Protein backbone atom coordinates (compact mmCIF):
# COMPACT_ATOMS: atom_id res chain seq x y z
CA UNK A 1 0.00 0.00 0.00
CA UNK A 2 2.27 2.79 1.24
CA UNK A 3 6.00 3.10 0.65
CA UNK A 4 8.34 2.46 3.56
CA UNK A 5 10.01 5.42 5.18
CA UNK A 6 13.68 6.08 4.55
CA UNK A 7 15.51 7.76 7.39
CA UNK A 8 18.90 9.48 7.45
CA UNK A 9 21.46 7.41 9.33
CA UNK A 10 24.50 8.57 11.27
CA UNK A 11 27.61 6.81 9.90
CA UNK A 12 31.14 6.89 11.32
CA UNK A 13 33.97 6.86 8.77
CA UNK A 14 37.08 5.01 9.90
CA UNK A 15 40.26 6.47 8.42
CA UNK A 16 43.36 4.34 7.86
CA UNK A 17 45.86 4.68 10.66
CA UNK A 18 48.92 3.00 12.03
CA UNK A 19 48.66 0.15 14.51
CA UNK A 20 49.17 1.27 18.09
CA UNK A 21 49.26 -0.53 21.39
CA UNK A 22 45.88 -1.00 23.05
CA UNK A 23 46.74 1.17 26.04
CA UNK A 24 47.56 4.07 23.70
CA UNK A 25 44.23 3.69 21.88
CA UNK A 26 42.12 4.10 25.03
CA UNK A 27 42.04 7.96 25.07
CA UNK A 28 41.16 7.99 21.38
CA UNK A 29 38.35 5.46 21.86
CA UNK A 30 36.97 7.38 24.82
CA UNK A 31 37.05 10.63 22.86
CA UNK A 32 35.13 9.13 19.97
CA UNK A 33 32.65 7.42 22.29
CA UNK A 34 31.94 10.66 24.14
CA UNK A 35 31.49 12.49 20.83
CA UNK A 36 29.03 9.90 19.57
CA UNK A 37 27.06 9.96 22.83
CA UNK A 38 26.95 13.75 22.67
CA UNK A 39 25.55 13.64 19.13
CA UNK A 40 22.85 11.15 20.12
CA UNK A 41 21.94 13.20 23.18
CA UNK A 42 21.63 16.30 21.03
CA UNK A 43 19.41 14.47 18.55
CA UNK A 44 17.23 13.23 21.40
CA UNK A 45 16.77 16.78 22.69
CA UNK A 46 15.80 17.98 19.24
CA UNK A 47 13.33 15.10 18.94
CA UNK A 48 11.74 15.89 22.30
CA UNK A 49 11.50 19.55 21.45
CA UNK A 50 9.73 18.83 18.20
CA UNK A 51 7.01 16.62 19.69
CA UNK A 52 4.74 19.56 20.33
CA UNK A 53 4.89 20.87 16.77
CA UNK A 54 1.53 20.07 15.18
CA UNK A 55 2.75 18.79 11.82
CA UNK A 56 2.41 15.47 10.07
CA UNK A 57 5.83 15.92 8.47
CA UNK A 58 8.59 18.49 8.09
CA UNK A 59 7.47 20.62 5.15
CA UNK A 60 10.94 20.49 3.57
CA UNK A 61 10.61 16.72 3.19
CA UNK A 62 7.15 16.76 1.62
CA UNK A 63 6.20 16.08 -1.96
CA UNK A 64 4.38 19.21 -3.09
CA UNK A 65 0.96 18.88 -4.65
CA UNK A 66 1.11 19.60 -8.38
CA UNK A 67 -2.33 21.25 -8.30
CA UNK A 68 -2.68 25.03 -8.31
CA UNK A 69 -6.42 24.70 -7.69
CA UNK A 70 -7.91 23.20 -4.54
CA UNK A 71 -8.95 19.56 -4.79
CA UNK A 72 -10.65 18.84 -1.47
CA UNK A 73 -11.54 15.20 -0.90
CA UNK A 74 -13.97 14.12 1.81
CA UNK A 75 -13.54 10.65 3.32
CA UNK A 76 -16.49 9.09 5.12
CA UNK A 77 -16.36 7.57 8.58
CA UNK A 78 -18.25 4.44 7.52
CA UNK A 79 -16.75 3.25 4.21
CA UNK A 80 -14.36 0.32 4.43
CA UNK A 81 -12.41 0.99 1.24
CA UNK A 82 -8.67 1.47 1.43
CA UNK A 83 -7.23 4.98 1.67
CA UNK A 84 -4.29 4.96 -0.73
CA UNK A 85 -1.17 6.92 -1.42
CA UNK A 86 -2.33 7.34 -5.00
CA UNK A 87 -5.57 9.02 -3.89
CA UNK A 88 -3.83 11.40 -1.53
CA UNK A 89 -1.31 12.42 -4.18
CA UNK A 90 -4.21 13.89 -6.16
CA UNK A 91 -5.70 15.90 -3.27
CA UNK A 92 -4.68 19.22 -1.80
CA UNK A 93 -6.89 18.64 1.27
CA UNK A 94 -8.22 15.41 2.81
CA UNK A 95 -11.24 15.91 5.08
CA UNK A 96 -12.46 13.26 7.52
CA UNK A 97 -16.25 13.37 7.91
CA UNK A 98 -17.31 13.43 10.68
CA UNK A 99 -16.12 13.99 14.24
CA UNK A 100 -19.09 14.03 16.62
CA UNK A 101 -19.93 17.12 18.71
CA UNK A 102 -22.10 16.57 21.78
CA UNK A 103 -24.61 19.00 23.30
CA UNK A 104 -21.89 20.56 25.49
CA UNK A 105 -19.59 21.28 22.56
CA UNK A 106 -17.13 18.46 23.22
CA UNK A 107 -15.67 16.47 20.34
CA UNK A 108 -15.54 12.69 20.41
CA UNK A 109 -15.19 9.70 18.13
CA UNK A 110 -18.19 7.46 17.56
CA UNK A 111 -17.95 3.67 17.33
CA UNK A 112 -15.10 2.78 14.93
CA UNK A 113 -14.48 6.32 13.70
CA UNK A 114 -11.06 6.59 15.31
CA UNK A 115 -9.67 3.59 13.45
CA UNK A 116 -10.75 5.04 10.10
CA UNK A 117 -9.38 8.47 11.03
CA UNK A 118 -6.03 7.01 12.09
CA UNK A 119 -5.82 5.18 8.77
CA UNK A 120 -6.24 8.49 6.96
CA UNK A 121 -3.51 10.16 9.03
CA UNK A 122 -1.15 7.23 8.54
CA UNK A 123 -1.80 7.14 4.80
CA UNK A 124 -0.98 10.85 4.46
CA UNK A 125 2.18 10.41 6.51
CA UNK A 126 3.32 7.39 4.50
CA UNK A 127 2.53 9.15 1.23
CA UNK A 128 5.00 11.87 2.23
CA UNK A 129 2.75 14.45 0.57
CA UNK A 130 1.80 17.96 1.63
CA UNK A 131 -1.91 17.05 1.57
CA UNK A 132 -3.60 18.99 4.36
CA UNK A 133 -5.62 16.86 6.78
CA UNK A 134 -8.81 18.31 8.24
CA UNK A 135 -11.81 17.11 10.21
CA UNK A 136 -15.41 18.00 9.44
CA UNK A 137 -18.02 18.58 12.15
CA UNK A 138 -21.75 18.49 11.49
CA UNK A 139 -23.48 17.09 8.44
CA UNK A 140 -26.84 15.36 8.24
CA UNK A 141 -26.65 13.60 11.58
CA UNK A 142 -24.78 16.00 13.87
CA UNK A 143 -25.84 19.58 13.14
CA UNK A 144 -28.58 19.77 15.75
CA UNK A 145 -26.30 21.12 18.50
CA UNK A 146 -24.70 24.03 16.62
CA UNK A 147 -27.38 26.59 17.50
CA UNK A 148 -27.49 25.86 21.25
CA UNK A 149 -23.71 25.52 21.59
CA UNK A 150 -22.84 28.74 19.76
CA UNK A 151 -25.46 30.78 21.64
CA UNK A 152 -24.02 29.75 25.03
CA UNK A 153 -20.68 31.42 25.81
CA UNK A 154 -19.42 28.55 27.99
CA UNK A 155 -20.39 25.86 25.50
CA UNK A 156 -18.94 27.87 22.63
CA UNK A 157 -15.62 28.16 24.48
CA UNK A 158 -15.72 24.43 25.18
CA UNK A 159 -16.34 23.73 21.49
CA UNK A 160 -13.50 25.97 20.33
CA UNK A 161 -11.12 24.51 22.92
CA UNK A 162 -12.10 20.98 21.85
CA UNK A 163 -11.33 21.77 18.21
CA UNK A 164 -7.97 23.33 19.09
CA UNK A 165 -7.09 20.40 21.36
CA UNK A 166 -8.00 17.89 18.66
CA UNK A 167 -5.89 19.65 16.02
CA UNK A 168 -2.93 19.88 18.39
CA UNK A 169 -3.21 16.30 19.64
CA UNK A 170 -3.53 14.75 16.18
CA UNK A 171 -1.20 17.21 14.47
CA UNK A 172 -3.60 17.97 11.64
CA UNK A 173 -4.17 21.19 9.72
CA UNK A 174 -7.70 22.41 10.29
CA UNK A 175 -11.44 22.05 10.64
CA UNK A 176 -14.47 22.17 8.36
CA UNK A 177 -17.71 23.50 9.86
CA UNK A 178 -20.56 21.63 8.15
CA UNK A 179 -23.63 23.19 9.79
CA UNK A 180 -26.55 21.83 7.77
CA UNK A 181 -28.05 24.39 7.65
CA UNK A 182 -27.45 27.72 9.37
CA UNK A 183 -30.77 29.46 10.03
CA UNK A 184 -31.88 32.97 9.19
CA UNK A 185 -32.51 34.29 12.71
CA UNK A 186 -30.84 37.39 14.12
CA UNK A 187 -29.30 35.22 16.84
CA UNK A 188 -27.59 32.93 14.35
CA UNK A 189 -26.53 35.89 12.20
CA UNK A 190 -24.61 37.10 15.26
CA UNK A 191 -23.45 33.79 16.74
CA UNK A 192 -21.91 32.23 13.62
CA UNK A 193 -19.51 35.08 12.69
CA UNK A 194 -18.60 35.51 16.36
CA UNK A 195 -17.78 31.82 16.63
CA UNK A 196 -15.63 31.82 13.48
CA UNK A 197 -13.74 34.89 14.66
CA UNK A 198 -12.98 33.33 18.05
CA UNK A 199 -12.10 30.00 16.45
CA UNK A 200 -9.62 31.64 14.08
CA UNK A 201 -7.92 33.47 16.95
CA UNK A 202 -7.68 30.26 18.97
CA UNK A 203 -6.28 28.16 16.14
CA UNK A 204 -3.55 30.71 15.52
CA UNK A 205 -2.14 29.68 18.91
CA UNK A 206 -2.01 26.07 17.71
CA UNK A 207 -0.42 26.60 14.30
CA UNK A 208 0.06 29.67 12.11
CA UNK A 209 -1.19 27.91 8.99
CA UNK A 210 -4.38 26.48 10.48
CA UNK A 211 -7.31 26.14 8.07
CA UNK A 212 -11.00 26.87 8.58
CA UNK A 213 -13.58 26.00 5.93
CA UNK A 214 -17.36 25.88 5.92
CA UNK A 215 -20.01 24.16 3.81
CA UNK A 216 -22.70 26.39 2.28
CA UNK A 217 -26.05 25.17 0.87
CA UNK A 218 -27.57 25.36 -2.59
CA UNK A 219 -28.82 28.82 -3.52
CA UNK A 220 -32.45 29.45 -4.53
CA UNK A 221 -33.57 26.20 -2.94
CA UNK A 222 -35.97 26.59 -0.02
CA UNK A 223 -34.20 29.89 0.79
CA UNK A 224 -31.44 27.93 2.54
CA UNK A 225 -28.86 30.50 1.50
CA UNK A 226 -30.57 33.32 3.44
CA UNK A 227 -28.67 32.55 6.64
CA UNK A 228 -25.24 32.98 5.06
CA UNK A 229 -24.15 36.61 5.36
CA UNK A 230 -20.67 36.17 3.95
CA UNK A 231 -19.64 39.77 4.52
CA UNK A 232 -19.85 39.10 8.25
CA UNK A 233 -17.41 36.18 8.34
CA UNK A 234 -15.52 35.81 5.04
CA UNK A 235 -12.31 37.14 6.60
CA UNK A 236 -12.29 34.33 9.18
CA UNK A 237 -12.45 31.39 6.76
CA UNK A 238 -10.06 30.05 4.14
CA UNK A 239 -12.57 28.61 1.71
CA UNK A 240 -16.18 27.51 1.22
CA UNK A 241 -17.27 24.09 -0.04
CA UNK A 242 -20.55 24.76 -1.81
CA UNK A 243 -23.16 22.01 -1.57
CA UNK A 244 -24.21 22.42 -5.19
CA UNK A 245 -25.77 18.97 -5.48
CA UNK A 246 -28.79 16.93 -4.32
CA UNK A 247 -31.04 18.89 -6.68
CA UNK A 248 -32.70 15.62 -7.72
CA UNK A 249 -32.84 12.30 -5.91
CA UNK A 250 -35.04 9.28 -5.18
CA UNK A 251 -36.27 10.92 -1.99
CA UNK A 252 -38.79 9.28 0.36
CA UNK A 253 -41.39 11.97 -0.34
CA UNK A 254 -43.15 13.75 -3.21
CA UNK A 255 -39.84 15.29 -4.33
CA UNK A 256 -38.59 11.84 -5.35
CA UNK A 257 -39.95 12.56 -8.82
CA UNK A 258 -38.90 13.62 -11.40
CA UNK A 259 -35.53 12.02 -11.99
CA UNK A 260 -32.56 14.24 -12.74
CA UNK A 261 -28.83 14.72 -12.15
CA UNK A 262 -27.66 15.30 -8.59
CA UNK A 263 -25.42 18.14 -9.76
CA UNK A 264 -26.62 19.48 -13.14
CA UNK A 265 -24.27 22.14 -14.41
CA UNK A 266 -27.12 24.04 -16.08
CA UNK A 267 -30.82 23.63 -16.69
CA UNK A 268 -33.78 22.38 -14.71
CA UNK A 269 -37.47 21.77 -15.05
CA UNK A 270 -40.65 23.29 -13.67
CA UNK A 271 -40.24 24.74 -10.19
CA UNK A 272 -36.67 23.44 -10.27
CA UNK A 273 -35.57 25.50 -13.25
CA UNK A 274 -32.86 27.20 -11.14
CA UNK A 275 -31.77 24.01 -9.38
CA UNK A 276 -28.29 23.74 -10.87
CA UNK A 277 -24.61 24.33 -10.15
CA UNK A 278 -24.36 27.48 -12.25
CA UNK A 279 -27.21 29.22 -10.44
CA UNK A 280 -25.68 28.52 -7.03
CA UNK A 281 -22.06 29.38 -7.88
CA UNK A 282 -23.13 32.56 -9.65
CA UNK A 283 -25.20 33.64 -6.65
CA UNK A 284 -22.37 33.27 -4.14
CA UNK A 285 -19.70 34.72 -6.41
CA UNK A 286 -21.76 37.78 -7.30
CA UNK A 287 -22.65 38.29 -3.64
CA UNK A 288 -19.05 38.22 -2.41
CA UNK A 289 -17.01 39.16 -5.51
CA UNK A 290 -14.51 36.58 -4.25
CA UNK A 291 -14.66 33.52 -6.56
CA UNK A 292 -11.33 32.09 -5.37
CA UNK A 293 -12.85 31.33 -1.96
CA UNK A 294 -15.42 28.91 -3.40
CA UNK A 295 -15.15 25.22 -4.31
CA UNK A 296 -17.89 23.52 -6.35
CA UNK A 297 -18.81 19.92 -5.62
CA UNK A 298 -18.25 16.85 -7.75
CA UNK A 299 -20.32 13.98 -6.34
CA UNK A 300 -18.78 10.53 -6.80
CA UNK A 301 -21.89 8.52 -5.89
CA UNK A 302 -24.43 6.97 -8.26
CA UNK A 303 -28.20 7.54 -7.98
CA UNK A 304 -30.78 4.90 -8.82
CA UNK A 305 -34.50 5.28 -9.41
CA UNK A 306 -36.84 2.38 -10.03
CA UNK A 307 -40.24 2.44 -11.74
CA UNK A 308 -39.24 5.26 -14.10
CA UNK A 309 -41.51 6.17 -17.00
CA UNK A 310 -41.66 8.70 -19.83
CA UNK A 311 -39.82 12.05 -19.90
CA UNK A 312 -41.57 15.10 -18.45
CA UNK A 313 -41.37 16.75 -21.86
CA UNK A 314 -39.70 15.99 -25.16
CA UNK A 315 -36.09 17.08 -25.36
CA UNK A 316 -35.54 16.66 -21.62
CA UNK A 317 -34.92 12.92 -21.46
CA UNK A 318 -32.93 13.13 -18.21
CA UNK A 319 -36.02 14.47 -16.38
CA UNK A 320 -38.49 11.57 -16.19
CA UNK A 321 -41.50 10.61 -14.16
CA UNK A 322 -40.87 8.12 -11.38
CA UNK A 323 -43.79 6.23 -9.87
CA UNK A 324 -43.97 6.71 -6.10
CA UNK A 325 -44.92 3.94 -3.71
CA UNK A 326 -46.62 5.05 -0.50
CA UNK A 327 -45.62 8.61 -1.38
CA UNK A 328 -41.91 7.81 -1.78
CA UNK A 329 -39.54 7.11 -4.65
CA UNK A 330 -37.94 3.68 -4.83
CA UNK A 331 -34.18 3.56 -5.36
CA UNK A 332 -30.79 4.30 -3.83
CA UNK A 333 -29.48 7.83 -3.30
CA UNK A 334 -25.80 7.22 -2.56
CA UNK A 335 -24.38 4.11 -4.24
CA UNK A 336 -20.62 3.70 -4.33
CA UNK A 337 -18.91 2.36 -7.45
CA UNK A 338 -18.17 -0.79 -5.43
CA UNK A 339 -21.91 -1.27 -4.86
CA UNK A 340 -22.63 -0.57 -8.53
CA UNK A 341 -20.12 -3.22 -9.59
CA UNK A 342 -21.17 -5.85 -7.07
CA UNK A 343 -24.90 -5.42 -7.68
CA UNK A 344 -24.38 -5.60 -11.43
CA UNK A 345 -25.57 -2.14 -12.46
CA UNK A 346 -24.30 -1.03 -15.86
CA UNK A 347 -23.12 2.57 -16.35
CA UNK A 348 -22.10 2.06 -19.96
CA UNK A 349 -23.15 2.79 -22.58
CA UNK A 350 -24.51 6.02 -21.13
CA UNK A 351 -26.72 8.64 -22.72
CA UNK A 352 -25.71 12.30 -22.53
CA UNK A 353 -27.83 15.31 -21.66
CA UNK A 354 -26.24 18.34 -23.28
CA UNK A 355 -28.12 20.92 -21.20
CA UNK A 356 -27.20 19.62 -17.75
CA UNK A 357 -23.85 18.25 -19.01
CA UNK A 358 -24.44 14.91 -17.31
CA UNK A 359 -24.70 11.22 -18.29
CA UNK A 360 -27.53 8.85 -17.45
CA UNK A 361 -28.71 5.31 -18.11
CA UNK A 362 -32.35 4.33 -18.57
CA UNK A 363 -33.59 0.80 -19.12
CA UNK A 364 -37.03 0.96 -20.67
CA UNK A 365 -37.77 -2.71 -19.95
CA UNK A 366 -36.96 -2.63 -16.23
CA UNK A 367 -37.76 1.02 -15.55
CA UNK A 368 -34.39 1.49 -13.83
CA UNK A 369 -32.75 4.89 -14.18
CA UNK A 370 -29.26 5.91 -13.03
CA UNK A 371 -27.50 9.27 -12.90
CA UNK A 372 -23.82 9.80 -12.07
CA UNK A 373 -20.64 11.64 -13.02
CA UNK A 374 -18.16 10.38 -15.59
CA UNK A 375 -15.02 11.72 -17.24
CA UNK A 376 -16.99 13.86 -19.70
CA UNK A 377 -19.21 15.50 -17.07
CA UNK A 378 -16.24 16.08 -14.76
CA UNK A 379 -14.32 17.75 -17.58
CA UNK A 380 -17.31 20.07 -18.12
CA UNK A 381 -17.35 21.00 -14.43
CA UNK A 382 -13.60 21.60 -14.32
CA UNK A 383 -13.80 23.82 -17.40
CA UNK A 384 -16.57 25.76 -15.66
CA UNK A 385 -14.43 26.20 -12.52
CA UNK A 386 -11.54 27.51 -14.62
CA UNK A 387 -13.76 29.83 -16.67
CA UNK A 388 -15.26 31.42 -13.57
CA UNK A 389 -12.03 31.62 -11.54
CA UNK A 390 -13.32 29.35 -8.77
CA UNK A 391 -10.83 28.29 -6.12
CA UNK A 392 -11.31 24.61 -6.84
CA UNK A 393 -13.56 21.63 -6.31
CA UNK A 394 -14.52 19.34 -3.48
CA UNK A 395 -15.35 15.66 -3.75
CA UNK A 396 -18.27 13.90 -2.09
CA UNK A 397 -16.89 11.29 -1.37
CA UNK A 398 -13.45 9.99 -2.41
CA UNK A 399 -14.30 6.52 -1.11
CA UNK A 400 -17.28 6.27 -3.49
CA UNK A 401 -14.87 5.96 -6.44
CA UNK A 402 -13.81 2.63 -7.93
CA UNK A 403 -10.48 0.90 -7.35
CA UNK A 404 -9.04 2.39 -10.53
CA UNK A 405 -9.74 5.91 -9.25
CA UNK A 406 -11.49 6.63 -12.52
CA UNK A 407 -13.24 9.76 -11.26
CA UNK A 408 -10.40 11.06 -9.10
CA UNK A 409 -7.97 10.81 -12.01
CA UNK A 410 -10.39 12.85 -14.10
CA UNK A 411 -10.62 15.52 -11.40
CA UNK A 412 -6.88 15.84 -10.87
CA UNK A 413 -6.23 16.40 -14.56
CA UNK A 414 -3.10 18.20 -15.71
CA UNK A 415 -5.15 20.91 -17.41
CA UNK A 416 -7.14 21.71 -14.28
CA UNK A 417 -4.21 21.52 -11.89
CA UNK A 418 -2.00 23.66 -14.12
CA UNK A 419 -4.61 26.41 -14.41
CA UNK A 420 -4.07 29.71 -12.65
CA UNK A 421 -6.70 32.40 -12.47
CA UNK A 422 -7.31 35.87 -11.16
CA UNK A 423 -9.72 36.44 -8.31
CA UNK A 424 -12.01 38.16 -10.79
CA UNK A 425 -15.77 37.81 -11.31
CA UNK A 426 -16.64 36.62 -14.82
CA UNK A 427 -20.40 36.24 -14.32
CA UNK A 428 -22.87 38.78 -15.63
CA UNK A 429 -24.09 39.76 -12.18
TrEMBL record:
Xref: PROSITE patterns: GH18_2
Where do the coiled-coil regions begin and end? none
Write down the InterPro entries for this protein, in alphabetical order.
Answer: Chitinase_II/V-like_cat, Chitinase_insertion_sf, GH, Glyco_hydro18_cat
Q: Does the keyword Transmembrane apply?
A: yes
Biological process according to GO: carbohydrate metabolic process
What's the name of the protein? GH18 domain-containing protein
Per the record, the gene is chil-18
GH18 domain segment(s): 69-418
Give a GO molecular function annotation for the protein.
chitin binding
Record field: transmembrane: 29-49
